[in-house]
Specification:
mainly alpha, 7 helices, 0% strand, single chain
Amino acid sequence: ASFIILMIYPGDRLIAFALIVSCTLSVIILERVLPFEISWNESKGDLKVDLAHYILNVVINQFGAFLFFYISIHYKVLNLWPSDLPVWTQILLASLIFDFGLYLIHFLSHQYKRLWLFHELHHSSERVYWLNGQKRHFLHELMEGLPGLFILLLLGAPGFLYITSITLTTI
């Protein structure tokens, strides 16, 4: 869905598309060739569970992307986004804002027991690899995405920036 929106969005959004594709392939290849732990390349029988979480959370992310895209076209709250900056700079800024929201909720999830109950699933894997990075409770996925989404919407960021940011953090 993000790829489709990026392709139909006017302007030079091919930079965002190329960034998403190259980052995705780089992560997958590098994890196989240079794993942090060699044993992480060995299956622990976790593929089905990890894939199910990945699909569910990507669907949630893509729904958020469509929602953001729609709202960003039809409504401008503060209209403070620096649209005159180069596209790569806007992608970096949007990604930093979005990632700060993810970090904030992640940090708070380690501090508060009620949030930890939703977050602990993310830390339950026996190995770490690109697919189980999305192993999260779906409510926690929503909680993590909302702060960045809200700030970017408030600032009036174009839809392709949120889509690029959420896709890059999903990798």
